[in-house]
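hi! just following up on the protien thing from before. the input was this:
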Amino acid sequence: MNQLFSLAIHGGAGTLVKGQMTTEKEIAYKKVLEFALDEGYALLKEGASSVDAVERAVEVLEDSPLFNAGKGSVFTADGNHEMDAAIMNGKTLDAGAVSLIHGIKNPIRLARDVMEKSEHIFLAAEGAMQFAQSLNYNLEDASYFYDEFRYQQWQDIKGTDSFQLDHSGKKESKFGTVGAVACDQQGNLAAATSTGGMTNKRFGRVGDSPMIGVGNYANNKTCAVSCTGSGEFFIKGVVAYDVSCLMEYKGLSLSEAASEVINKRLLYIGGDGGLIAVDSNGNIAMPFNTEGMYRGSKTSLGEKKISIYGE
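and the predicted 3d structure came back as:
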């Protein structure tokens, strides 16, 4: 039997409340999701590794101002952008992550360089920036990350103690931690996640996205997972690794494990959000407990889906 290969991507859970989503916006979001999906899948089809595929898919999403990662990152309380990203290779369990970085056009690329060109897994803030400089990364000017919508989002709560999660339904907002998971033609898994964090965040807050085993995890024995949602709760629940554990130790299928974590365990502790996951047979699961989650998937059986709201 030929190995089934597949790719799934997400652009954040929560989404615009259905009444606020205009047809134009929906088309714009779906167009970027489809481009990211097609770019990553094309690599898998050519025989590239799952690591290459998830990195490429996430780069496309980072390059779009529609999602809270890379170019579309939200403003911190100081009016800056602090980005986080992580990538993991399910075959070797090698991983790379960066946090609190600025000026880097594609944080996921830096995370991969940490994985492949350093002896470490997680680099943060100035140290991560020094590492980027040692590899001659170009730093983008702050104007590259400026987005009028994100700016207004920040102005609304600037100077207060409140912060705004990407997917909060309080007002019309753009969303979107982004991520990708893939199973390649060799049955190897990989996961990648990237985010701009939360609007008006202070004190160097870091969410779940760059934490290995929390917002991002991959292990050929079980699954590859990328999460999106209320980061603090995902950290408490060690969500990505929890899905893997349920598969490894309880023998649950990918869809059973993913659903148990998102629809029961996470809800039980008060968290909302979703995840995308894939196993080494190419099966995909994309559960979420919010009104929607920007998501897409494509498999070598010719199945392709791009959705925003619950089916």
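The first strand starts at residue 6 and ends at 13.
The two ends are 31 Å apart (CA to CA).
cheers
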